[in-house]
Write a structure and sequence with these properties.
This protein has 452 residues and is an alpha/beta fold. Helix content is 36%, strand content 21%. It has helices at residues 12-27, 51-67, 77-83, 85-91, 105-117, 170-174, 182-194, 223-232, 252-260, 277-283, 289-302, 321-334, 363-388, 424-427, and strands spanning 3-8, 31-32, 41-46, 72-76, 95-97, 128-130, 152-156, 158-159, 178-179, 199-203, 239-243, 267-269, 307-314, 338-343, 392-400, 408-412, 417-420, 431-440, 443-448.
């Protein structure tokens, strides 16, 4: 059977989608390979959040095809959804599959291979483009291919987003919100726990608004909190995370969940996007900086020691120096433990891309604000890292370090990376304590704590 390589760009949901497609190939008898050089089928799972991600994917496919043309080439994911048949014309790939058709990928590859073997492509190019909507497609992302001793896994609980922030392409590439049944998700988590998984991360484009259109509230608890409670009861699961949430999804019931669900990890990623109320309104973000500040304070009160991280965009169209300074003031006040700082870039098909060119900022201004805010983020974050020196922290060991294969790495409950000397057979997939000795940038280093 042919060998398949899938290259993934973008978010954790893309990683999870790739895992599902890979499992489906394996079940059909294909062999997955880690490199494209020996693959008969090369697919790229794409991201459209920034133009750079799209250009990387197109460039990667160009490199693959220049080196040699595999039997089948194709794009999946968000860029495939937004560009469709344009990608066939531009890159000469055989397959373009949108975000609601991952479960069709293997059958389409089969069809293309049969067409080539039957010489159907001698006179006219044979390609497949499928970017149509499909009901219940969210239920197709449910299978896992686990590595040996894998301790953590992603679980997709929904697809789509209804918020339509003016800078974001996701609602147009992922479609409207669609949630999976709680019982199906819980059973998937149970199967993972039976295979030794100790931590699950629940995935959704707007994860804490899960199920709001499909399922009722019960005893004042939203469908998402009901799901958290159900997953919390699964034996063997010791940590629960979720990403990416929206500030308006943090209702009273979700904040209270942190007071009585100890398996919820002490970390929330809470995208603020701007500290200026005027810019938030332009972005179509339905909260103010004051309401966001109050939300962070209530979350921190519910679970003392919780780490709060965020996303922010600098240089959004119309952002004045005063607007930027309001963002900077918010960051100085809230002291996030980390932040992804993005320079605004136009995304074709979004309202922000159509805003008056007169209010589009220069790259120089964006870069200056980016660097200034990063410096402030680092200042506050490293204060938290200083406090950990000499302390014991609980980690879940995920595997070898990405920068040094002779060492292992894990994550704390607050989602900080820890690198240490360890025994792969004994430590990978396990939860234990490490004493922190030092840190570099956003990586902690330490030694395994042994008990007498």
């Amino acid at each position: 059977m042919p060998r398949v390589h899938i290259k993934t760009y973008g978010c954790q949901m893309n990683e999870r989608d790739t895992e599902q497609v890979s499992q489906m190939f394996v079940e059909r008898g294909y062999t997955m390979t880690a490199t494209d050089t020996d693959a008969d089928v090369v697919l790229i799972n794409t991201c459209s959040v920034r133009d750079q991600a799209e250009q990387k994917a197109i460039g990667k496919m160009g490199m693959v095809r220049r080196r040699r043309v595999p039997l089948v080439t194709g794009f999946m994911g968000c860029m495939a959804q937004s560009r469709g048949s344009e990608l066939v014309e531009k890159t000469k790939v055989d397959l373009v599959v949108g975000t609601q058709k991952y479960h069709r990928v293997v059958e389409y590859v089969d069809e293309i291979i049969r067409a080539k073997e039957a010489k159907m492509m001698d006179e006219e190019r044979f390609s497949i483009v499928d970017i149509e909507e499909e009901q219940a497609s969210q239920n197709a992302i449910r299978d896992h291919t686990l590595k040996e001793n894998q301790g953590s896994a992603f679980v997709s609980i929904m697809q789509g987003c209804n918020m339509k922030c003016t800078f974001c392409i996701v609602p147009y590439t992922r479609g409207s919100e669609r949630g999976r049944p709680i019982a199906d998700i819980t059973e998937e988590v149970r199967r993972l726990a039976d295979k030794g998984v100790k931590e699950v991360t629940l995935l959704g484009q707007i994860v804490n608004l899960y199920g709001r259109h499909e399922f009722p509230a019960v005893d004042g608890k939203s469908p998402f909190v009901q799901l958290l409670e159900a997953v919390h009861e699964v034996p063997g699961i010791q940590r629960i995370r979720f990403t990416s949430p929206h500030p308006i999804g943090y209702k009273k019931d979700l904040i209270e969940a942190f007071t009585y669900l100890p398996k919820l990890a002490e970390h929330v990623h809470l995208p603020v996007q701007s500290g200026s109320d005027e810019i938030l309104k332009r972005m179509h973000r339905p909260y103010t900086s004051a309401k966001f500040t109050d939300l962070v304070e209530r979350i921190r009160a519910a679970r003392p020691g919780i780490a709060v991280t965020t996303d922010v965009i600098v240089g959004f169209p119309g952002e004045t120096e005063e607007h930027y300074l309001q963002t900077r003031e918010l960051f100085d006040k809230l002291k996030f433990e980390n932040a992804f700082v993005f320079r605004y870039s136009k995304r074709r098909g979004t309202p922000a891309a159509e805003m008056d060119d007169a209010i589009q900022l220069s790259e120089q201004v964006k870069e200056a604000r980016n660097q200034d805010l990063l410096a402030l983020v680092n200042k506050h974050a490293w204060t938290k890292y200083e406090e950990l020196l000499g302390q014991e922290v609980e980690i879940l060991c995920e595997g070898t370090s990405k920068t040094n294969e002779s060492r292992l790495m894990g994550r704390t409950r607050t989602n900080k990376i820890v690198v240490f000397e360890g025994n792969p057979e004994r430590h990978i997939g396990e939860i234990f304590n490490v004493r922190i000795s030092h840190y570099e940038n956003f990586t902690l280093y330490g030694d395994v704590v042994t008990r007498e």
